[in-house]
Amino acid sequence: MKKNSRGFTLLELMIVVAIVAILATIAYPSYQGFVLRSHRAEAIEGLLSAQLRQEEWRVKNGSYTSTMSNLGTPTSTYYAFTATASSSGVPTYTLTATASGSQTADTDCPTLTITNADVKGPSASCWE
Which SS3 state, helix, strand or coil, does residue 84 take? Predict the structure, then answer.
């Protein structure tokens, strides 16, 4: 006599759960890395925008500014922006974006900097 079986056995269900768990353990770290890099792109955009406004400030005022509010501080939930400027000798500035909140998990690039000479730190890979 033929027996019609419907549904899944417990063993089949456990195999599917195990496969999904394995895929999740592989995919989740990649996803987290992608999220950190996308937030870093937001910081890069803010720094490049502030760099442009810093040059505009120098054209209008003859020196660079150390006050981010003069540059229209970029808004970010994940980074805090600061500016330092020196007018002794050749005027220079450094703009910095420091990770805050959940972005502190980005241990590869916790801070991003850019100077008036367009030197980007801490490494070129952080700016990609």
Answer: strand
User: For 46-50, which contacts have Cβ atoms below 8 Å and span 24 or more sequence positions?
Assistant: 46/74, 46/75, 46/76, 46/79, 46/81, 46/97, 47/74, 47/81, 47/95, 47/97, 47/112, 47/113, 47/114, 48/114, 49/74, 50/74, 50/81, 50/83, 50/95
Residue (of 74, 95, 77) closest to 35 by Cα position: 77
Q: In this structure, what token pair is assigned to residue 100? A: 């805050």
Pairing, β 92-99 against β 120-121 = unpaired
First to last CA, the chain: 67
Q: Which mean pLDDT values do the consecutive 10-residue runs of the chain (128 residues) have?
A: 73 93 91 92 94 94 90 88 89 94 92 94 91
Residue 97 and residue 118: Cα distance in Å, rounded?
15
Which two three-digit tokens encode residue 63? Answer: 């020196």
Beta bridge partner(s), residue 79 = 99
Q: What is the pLDDT of residue 39?
A: 93
